[in-house]
Design brief:
Elements lengths: L11 H4 L27 H5 L4 H31 L4 H14 L2 H24 L5 H30 L7 H4 L18 H16 L10 H21 L5 H24 L6 H42 L1
C-alpha cells in the first residue's frame, strides 16, 4: 500500500516482510472480476498501478491459506479419531488437535488482522455501492471491522483474567500463541499482545485517510510514535522469557523505526537530492539489518536446538 500517501516505496508492509505469501499478486488482470482493474482507492494508488483488483488478488490468498488450514484440521481430526499408525504419529495427531483448538486459528487471525481491517475500512470509505455485489461487500466490511474491534478485546480479556491459570502448560496450550515466549511472571506482559492489535487497527484506519485530508500527517506520526513506544516498552518491561529474544525483538523494532524515518525523508518531505540519497542508503541499511537480525537469530536457534532453548527459558 502507498504508505503515508507520499510518492515513495508502495509496499512498506511488504518491504520488511518480503516473503509474506498472502501479498503475492500474480495476474496483471484480475480473474473473474476484471472490472476492478480500472478502479483505484485514490490517486496515490494509481501511481503504483495498485488497482482494487490487485488488492483483491492479494486478499484472495488469505482465503487460500484458510482453506489449507481447514483441510489440515479435518485431516488431523479424522486421524485422531481413527487412532491408527505408529505411536509417534498418534501422539502427534493428538498434539496437533490441541493446537487447532485454537492456536492455529488465532495465529491465522493475527496474520490477517491488519489487512482485514485495512480492506474493510477502505471499502467503507470508498463509497461506491451502486451494485448488489458492492452493497454486499460494504455489509461484509462493516461486519469485519466490528469483529476486529470486539474479538481482540475478547481474546485479551480471556488471557488477562486467566493469566495465573495460563502459567500451567496444559491450561495455556489452546491460547499460547498470544503469549508466545512471554515471561508469565507479571500481567503487564499481556500488554504485548494487546499492543499488537491496537497498533495495527489504528494504523490501518489512518492509512485509509483521503489524500486530501488535513490529518494526513497523523499517519507518519502515529506509526513512528508507536514504534518508539514499543522500543521503550521492550527496554522497560523486557516481556519475553530470555534476553536473546528480548534483544532480537528490540533490534527488529529499532531497525524498523529507522526505516520509517528514512522512508519519510526519502519521500516528498524534502526536495534536497543529497538528503534523499542519504535516506535511500539508510533505507537499504535498515532493511539489511532487519534481514541480518532475523537470519542470525534463526541460525543461532537452529544450532542450539529445542532442548537447550527450553533450558534457557527456565533460567
Amino acid at each position: 500500500m502507498p504508505i503515508y500517501n507520499f510518492r515513495l516505496i508502495p509496499y512498506l508492509y511488504d518491504a520488511y516482510k518480503p516473503a509474506l505469501v498472502s501479498h503475492i499478486i500474480i495476474f496483471n488482470n484480475t480473474p473473474i472480476y476484471s472490472g476492478l482493474d480500472d478502479e483505484f482507492f485514490n490517486l496515490n494508488y494509481k501511481y503504483y498501478w495498485l488497482s482494487t483488483g490487485r488488492l483483491m488478488q492479494s486478499f484472495a490468498f488469505y482465503v487460500v491459506i484458510l482453506i489449507i488450514i481447514l483441510v489440515s484440521n479435518i485431516f488431523v481430526f479424522v486421524m485422531s479419531k481413527v487412532n491408527a499408525g505408529p505411536l509417534g504419529f498418534r501422539n502427534w495427531t493428538k498434539s496437533a488437535m490441541v493446537q487447532f483448538k485454537f492456536n492455529v486459528y488465532i495465529r491465522f487471525y493475527m496474520m490477517v488482522y491488519f489487512d482485514l481491517t485495512f480492506f474493510a475500512v477502505m471499502k467503507i470509505i470508498q463509497g461506491s455501492n451502486t451494485t448488489t455485489a458492492r452493497k454486499a461487500a460494504l455489509l461484509v466490511s462493516y461486519v469485519i471491522f466490528v469483529i476486529n474491534i470486539v474479538l481482540p478485546v475478547f481474546l485479551i480479556t480471556i488471557v488477562f483474567r486467566r493469566f495465573e491459570i495460563l502459567k500451567i502448560k496444559e491450561a495455556k496450550q489452546s491460547f499460547n500463541t498470544l503469549l508466545l515466549k512471554l515471561d508469565k511472571q507479571a500481567k503487564i506482559r499481556v500488554g504485548n499482545a494487546a499492543y499488537f492489535f491496537i497498533r495495527r487497527i489504528v494504523t490501518a484506519v489512518l492509512l485509509t485517510l483521503p489524500i486530501t485530508s488535513t490529518f494526513i500527517f497523523l499517519q507518519y506520526v502515529f506509526v513512528l510514535m508507536t514504534s518508539h513506544a514499543y522500543v521503550l516498552y521492550m527496554v522497560a518491561v523486557k516481556p519475553f522469557k530470555t534476553s536473546s529474544i528480548n534483544a532480537y525483538v528490540l533490534a527488529n523494532e529499532t531497525f524498523y523505526s529507522a526505516l520509517i524515518i528514512a522512508i519519510f525523508i526519502f519521500s516528498d518531505a524534502t526536495p534536497e537530492m543529497n538528503i534523499k540519497v542519504g535516506a535511500a542508503m539508510a533505507i537499504i541499511a535498515s532493511l539489511a539489518l532487519i534481514v541480518i537480525a532475523n537470519v542470525i537469530t534463526n541460525v543461532v536457534y537452529l544450532i542450539r536446538g529445542p532442548l537447550k532453548l527450553k533450558e534457557d527459558a527456565r533460567v
